[in-house]
Write a structure and sequence with these properties.
Length: 373
């Protein structure tokens, strides 16, 4: 088992290095600036998909509010970019609504460091507060999904009505520089892409380490049988709140990376539709795999870009058909389908569908027994 584990680790390391070389070296040398910028956006989607996979695939909680956390992170960093572009003046949209003094809410965003910190902290705090209230009431399953969906709709509507503060429906658009560099410059776009690749790699490694750790066993045990885990002495409310906040923080990071590559953030980009699309990415790739979340986000958005360019009216129908097809034909996603095909071709026995062992709760019970000796 030890040799097998080392072998798997070596294969994963080689695959990770190969992907890093492909995205950091091959892509910048072979693709146009436009294509690199477009791929950079898709990679930010892959980051937020990782966060959803962490709570849905490993913990069993389907959140329909990841688009909200993604948008909050984007708004936080967009406010800094807007202030940097405006310089000593007020943002241009404020003059249209008669605002003569910078609102207090904008004051902290003069600092890029504070803006980046808030892009992560604000979604995490909101998720922690919401999650604690929900999980303490033992709300779970579809009811948790409905509450997160309702919160997303409420916040999106509130943002639409804030014309003087954040330009309402139009969103924040006046962003021309980042850390003194012109955002439209090819070198800046390539640099943003490279940063996104590195951050995606760091987030993936962190999530991989998390799900392989003892905490990961707790998450899977929580997904499989929450009551049994509670009887073992664990606090499901605290565990759920922590992982929900972590996923929100990951979405905030993705939003902060997304907005300088697009140059706009509006309430439309964090509504219910955006959250549902994130679910589709993870479902298509294969939840509970992490790699599947990245693969699904990239493939779906590449397909969406191609189809919407050729037939703008058909891509929504394609997205709906894709989700239905995956649920009916490939319930374990592309990664699961490839894994099942491999087992059939090799004649090997398919292991139980968990990423950390045959029975996470039994492993935890054995760990507890060893600790008690």
């Amino acid at each position: 088992m030890l040799k097998l584990g080392r072998s798997n680790l070596a294969v994963q390391a080689v695959a990770f290095i190969a992907c890093a070389i492909f995205f950091l070296v091959v892509i910048p040398q072979t693709q146009s600036t436009f294509q690199i910028n477009l791929l950079g956006r898709f990679l930010t989607y892959a980051i937020v998909a990782l966060g959803l996979d962490l709570i849905w695939g490993y913990t069993g909680m389907l959140s329909l509010g990841q688009g909200l956390f993604f948008g909050l992170g984007a708004y936080c960093f967009a406010m800094y970019l807007n202030l940097e572009t405006a310089g000593k003046n007020l943002p241009e949209f404020m003059g249209l609504y008669g605002v003569t003094e910078l609102p207090w809410l904008w004051q902290p965003f003069h600092s890029p460091v504070i803006a980046l910190i808030l892009a992560v902290v604000v979604p995490m705090v909101l998720a922690a507060l919401l999650g604690f209230m929900i999980f303490r009431s033992r709300v779970q399953g579809v009811y948790f999904s409905i509450i997160t969906q309702a919160l997303t709709a409420i916040v999106a509507l509130l943002l639409v009505g804030q014309q003087q503060l954040i330009n309402g429906t139009n969103g924040i658009t006046e962003m021309r520089t980042i850390f003194g560099a012109k955002m439209a410059a090819p070198d800046t776009k390539i640099a943003l892409y490279m940063v996104t690749v590195v951050v995606l790699g760091i987030v993936f490694i962190a999530c991989q380490f998390l799900v392989k750790s003892r905490f990961g066993r707790v998450l899977v045990a929580l997904r499989d049988d929450e009551n049994r885990l509670r009887f073992m002495g664990y606090n499901p409310v605290l565990i759920k709140t922590i992982v929900f906040a972590l996923s929100a923080g990951i979405a905030g990071i993705a939003g902060a990376l997304f907005v300088p590559q697009v140059g706009i953030i509006a309430p439309k980009q964090l509504d219910i539709t955006a959250s549902i699309e994130i679910v589709i990415w993870v479902a298509v790739g294969g939840r509970g795999t992490l790699v599947g979340a990245i693969l699904g986000a990239l493939l779906v958005n590449m397909g969406k870009s191609s189809i919407s360019s050729a037939n703008p009216d058909l891509w929504q129908l394609f997205m709906g058909a894709l989700f239905i097809g995956v649920v009916l034909l490939f319930p374990e996603g592309l990664i699961g389908a490839a894994r099942n095909l491999w087992f059939r071709l090799t004649g090997k026995t398919k292991p139980k569908p968990t990423s950390i062992g045959p029975d996470a709760q039994s492993v935890l019970e054995m760990d507890a027994a060893k600790a008690a000796k």
